[in-house]
Amino acid sequence: MSCPVTGRATDSLSSGSTGAEPIVLDPLVRDREGEIARLRESGPITRIDLLGAVAFSVTDHAEARQLLTDPRLVKDINRWNAWRDRRITREWPLIGMIDAGRSMFTVDGAEHRRLRAMTAQAVTPRRVEGMRPAIERITADLLDRVAELGADGSPVELKETFALPLPMKVVSELMGVDAKDHPRLHELYDAFFSMLTPQEERLAVIEEMDVFYTRVVAEKKAAPGDDLTSALILADEGGEPLTDEEVIGNLKAMVAAGHETTISLILHAVRALLDNPDQLALVLSGEVGWEAVIEETLRWASPSTHLLMRFATEDIEVAGTVIPEGEGVVMSYAAIGRDPAQHGEDADRFDITRTLPIRHMAFGHGPHICPGAALSRLEAAIALPALFERFPRMALAVPNEEIRNMPVMTQNDLAALPILIDAADR
Ligand code: STR
């Protein structure tokens, strides 16, 4: 069998790591659970092959926690040997995950603190809480549409109708992106993340996103609004405002992150509850709260499968392995969330009755910890109860095993989630 993306043999996909051979990750994600299990078996630090780029994967909670605060690991792609040697170029399908312009996502140290401070200031708990009415309104409107589509008993595709539009509407409202641009943005992000997109097309997509966000920033400069993009333009933390490139980079990062990851959180929570009716009953009766559902989903079905990438600025020894200077390090959050040393021997099980707080790392750790965590939790805490209150007899419209991941290596992205809004005999 050969890989449809690279044309290379994929026989090693199912055999896992043999000795010093890196684990070859499947760009089509045909067996996500199997891949996580193989990573866990060869952790805590193992080598993975991502479409021809070999990197170190961190699979355990303790090592991840340690490395995420280690200043010897940085985001600067110029510290990557493979990039410096031109073994990896813009032709590599995952390049957009690393070479994403100057933003708080791609810099470290004092520069990072400067870029991040203004965003952190802007995404205050008050501002997030202030989004509540908007999120409630958006949720209610989308649910009306779901009800309409499913009224005749036919299946409704919950990703397209609910989980996908919600986060884009919310993050756009926050950042000041116009609703008329949402359909195109959805297409662009689908093409950006899918490993089936020809690389030439992906580079054109990245270019179009840059043009788009450059225009948004220019418009906000001309006519500032009550949005975070305008706040980033106007902020002058210690007399040093952000450059246009930095504003554009931060805007891009926040829309991409706010959109892609929250879809995943909502869809996986719904899927897991519908696949575990006994647990859903505990939630619907009020015995277990939505917070437990959300935190368990983040742990068990981390929206970020592999976070690319950090680079070793010197040899780093961790858990008996040396990560040599210039090598890339990937945080494999999907595996980290399943670490039995952190979550118990049944870590592979979805179980909302775990004691809170569940100390997962789905939002990362250290200086780059997700600045949007509170917003995504709020979105899920509004969307999930609203959905199940509206459709208490909802059920999966296809067997759970038939639900597929998108051909996306870094994100836990479902292709679709068909549901029946009123399955009398669930
Ligand atoms: C996508 C492309 C882009 O224009 C900017 C960014 C920066 C933020 C990244 C985003 C990326 C991909 C998804 C990420 C997000 C930060 C959090 C999110 C990695 C590269 C996660 O999946 C955790």
Indicate the percent of residues in helices. 40-55%
CATH topology: Cytochrome p450
CATH architecture title:
Orthogonal Bundle
- Roughly how many Å apart are the termini? 40 Å
Q: Tally the helices: what do you get?
A: 17
- Ligands, deduplicated: progesterone
Supply the number of structural domains.
Answer: 1
Quick one: CATH superfamily? Cytochrome P450
Instruction: Return the average pLDDT rounded to an integer.
Output: 94
Write down the secondary-structure element order. EHEEHEHHHHEHHHHHHHHEEEEHHHEE
**Main pleated sheet:** 6 strands, mixed
Spatial shape: globular
Instruction: Say how many strands there are.
Output: 11
Indicate the proportion of strand residues.
5-15%
Low-confidence stretches: 9-18
Question: Helix/strand/pairing class, anyone?
Answer: alpha+beta
Output the CATH class name: Mainly Alpha
Order of the strands making up the biggest sheet = 1-2-3-9-6-4
Pfam families: p450 (PF00067)
Family: Belongs to the cytochrome P450 family.
InterPro entries: Cyt_P450 (IPR001128), Cyt_P450_B (IPR002397), Cyt_P450_CS (IPR017972), Cyt_P450_sf (IPR036396)
Protein name: Cytochrome P450
